[in-house]
Amino acid sequence: MRLEFYDAERRFTLCRLKQYMKQEADILTRAQAGEERYSGNLGWLHVDEWAGEEKLREIETCAGRVREDGEILVVIGIGGSNQAARAVVEALSCGGPMKILYAGNNVSSQYMKQLLKQLEGKSVYVNVIAKNFETLEPGIGFRILRQYLKERNGTGYERRVFATGTRGSRLHELCRIYGYTFLDFPENIGGRYSGLCNVGLFPAAVAGMDIRAMAAGAGDMERELRNTKGEENTAFQYAAIRSLLYQEGFRVEMLASFEPRLQYFYGWWTQLFAESEGKQGKGLYPTAVKYSEDLHSIGQFVQEGTPILFETFLDIEEQGDAVSVEADEVEDGFDYLNGSSLADISRAAFEATVKAHSERLPCIRIRIDELNEYSFGQLFYFFEFACYLSGKLLGVNPFDQPGVENYKGYMFEALGKYKYRSESNGEN
């Protein structure tokens, strides 16, 4: 991975960036070592802890059980409990024998009806993922889908249930009582940092992804970022540029790519930075666009709208086998494309976009050789480590999310949870 920065207006100079990174170098040093104050949230920092050889073998064994006779795995989880796996599976899956569907990420009746319809006549397994099993959406999804499994499979349905949770949690207890297969949701990893443990790797393995390549990519990125000092550290460069642009008044970071397969990666990236940095009245607002489609809409705002944002481009350099545009008997006005591949056309559009947008707004470009399991492992670790650094530069805790809980009290009150709890405890 390589990083480039474009800023025609020279909001800050390279000299200022280097000076800032030198000034804040202690943040990098402490992050590389892993700070004791965050020890309960740094399980992702050491890839081998939860994606080492022993863990990978366990995941592959469990995934093999599903793949023996399964046709569909329904992943029940919300936010960080499904974003990473979905990003990889939806980007790289080639329509193999296993299909991955998703539940527990909304409360839509129509969505659930359509999901259940897709399960009819299929061999179905479920993987419910919840760190504390108190979140509404996964609770609803698991209740409906385990009842579906019981009705279709009767006694023995429990072998089709894999539950990823923390030890000692309610979900862990349900596994003990009912015989579901339990997988660890590491206590020292938060949901949005959980792509490289059972949470993200088990569904990916069931889908046929090469989870060893994911772990290898993340491990190589770990060694690079935790051993590269000062201004040469790419994640530190990215975090420092974001911080300086925030100080210059920019309030939105927009992730962009010309690769539609990254659609669900955008969701993972958005959650990572929104939940990690959006607190204490601070933080860049993370959003994403799908080019070239959004050039015909959001592109207008970028070129002439309020200058509140900067762009981070993910540049996938190798596109693989390319489809060519060939001439036929129809005079359609596009003969200038004759013999061009879609990869060539996409490259031309990408370069033109970076050039046009960087003339008005700052742009970061992150180059990736190709999109595969190895590069996804790299991307997950790179952005997680950069988010750790960026949160520290911003002056916030990158690992808590107190604001996420605010709406739940009102919702649980409206649904009668507290009344039910009092009555079940025999309280008046």
UniProtKB/TrEMBL annotation:
The lineage of its organism: Bacteria, Bacillati, Bacillota, Clostridia, Lachnospirales. It is an enzyme of class 5 (isomerase). GO terms for cellular component: cytosol. Its EC number is 5.3.1.9. It comes from the Bacteria. This is Glucose-6-phosphate isomerase. PANTHER family: GLUCOSE-6-PHOSPHATE ISOMERASE. Belongs to the GPI family. It is found in: Cytoplasm. GO terms for molecular function: carbohydrate derivative binding; glucose-6-phosphate isomerase activity; monosaccharide binding. Its main location: cytoplasm.
